[in-house]
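Quick one:
INPUT:
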């Protein structure tokens, strides 16, 4: 390959990378309708001080143990989340975590990041393949080993189907 052809190939590659990057941060993209209006849902952390690392699993994800986070559930998943264990979620359940770096941001409701768990299928078992995940209000939901592997721990810790923040979790960790 000549030098200029190589340069062109690299430039093309960079353009593809840039475009791919733009797809996830496109300011004109609309939030997925499955969670666009999550703030009108049931806020299950209402009345709590949702910080720390109660399950000792967070590490640095979800803004870590010094972060603050609110969890919302849509009507389809509400009964399963607020009921007693075992917590098994019907297809169509969506849970949103709205997370902040610190208490001041949380109180002001600013600079929040969104992560989303969607139960997109139900094969009758607690299987990671039933769930898809999104890291951002305008991100696309899809399978994620990263999200699913850690969330598998909800099964043994809280007898729950890939969702940590259940009634049992909130009760156990109430301060
Ligand atoms: C290292 C472990 C870990 C990884 C990786 C992880 N999470 Fe979580 N997630 C947690 C824990 C622990 C909680 C709840 C407990 C808390 O807030 O202290 C949680 C809570 C949530 C919640 C609120 C509902 C619930 O299950 O409690 C959502 C939604 C969520 N995570 C989505 C995601 C998405 C999307 C990804 C991937 C981009 C992800 N998580 C990756 C550990 C993880």
């Amino acid at each position: 390959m000549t030098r200029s052809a190589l340069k062109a190939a690299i430039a093309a590659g960079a353009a593809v990378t840039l475009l791919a990057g733009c797809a996830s941060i496109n300011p004109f993209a609309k939030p997925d309708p499955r969670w666009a209006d999550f703030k009108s849902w049931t806020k299950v952390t209402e009345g709590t001080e949702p910080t720390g690392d109660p399950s000792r699993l967070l590490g640095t994800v979800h803004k870590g143990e010094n972060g603050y986070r609110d969890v919302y559930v849509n009507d389809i998943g509400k009964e399963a989340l607020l009921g007693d264990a075992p917590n098994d979620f019907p297809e169509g359940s969506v849970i949103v975590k709205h997370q902040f770096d610190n208490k001041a941001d949380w109180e002001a409701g600013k600079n929040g990041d969104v992560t989303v768990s969607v139960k997109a299928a139900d094969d009758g078992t607690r299987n990671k393949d039933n769930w898809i995940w999104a890291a951002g209000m305008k991100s696309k939901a899809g399978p994620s080993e990263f999200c699913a592997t850690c969330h598998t721990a909800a099964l043994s810790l809280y007898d729950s189907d890939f969702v940590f923040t259940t009634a049992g979790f909130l009760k156990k960790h109430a301060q």
